[in-house]
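G., the chain you wanted modeled:
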Amino acid sequence: MSYHDERSRRSWQNAEEILGRTGFGPGDIMIDVGCGEGFFALPAARIAGSSGRVVGIDINGDAVSRMLGRAGKEGLSNVEGIVGAGEETRVCTGCADLIFFGIDLHDFADPRKVLGNARLMVKAGGTLCDLDWQKRPTPFGPPISIRFDEQTAAALIRDAGFSIERIEEVPPWFYLILAVPDPRAPPGKHPEVQSGKNLSEAEFMQ
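Predicted structure as tokens:
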């Protein structure tokens, strides 16, 4: 069994249940950083409905194309896909109700840059969710050596200008960190942030 296989993944990870933990709801905007083929982005689009929006960012153009193809077959017109590196891609400023990382924060070459961009994209009242592998032996998954434990991931998130709300275990092999923007660390104060699009929420939703 491969943890990259979307179909087998459904046997050990429930996207809808995990999204439910974040408070994401109808009319909300979610940015899925490292979206792959849309394992979380497509369920989120169903939840968001026609008044919401989901943007998936991934460096793998083929995966983004498959996500958009599946969205089209379902009639999900509220899904957008962007091919790009998380370190270099910012789709808006202060537009997102939810910035989502689905078992991938450990994969980025520079997670500090990625989280810096997340801080700029999230709304003042929005949420960042980091779902990732526990740093322990599991039947499959990425090498333990590249995984972040909960404390390391939480420290990176705090350093990017967030306040940790809670850390939860997600059986069988994961943890989930929910964080909110720290008003004492406003966006734009972090040197690791890269330039990108600078759309307001209203412009983004047009």
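Residues 190-196 have pLDDT under 50 and may be disordered.

Shout if anything looks off.
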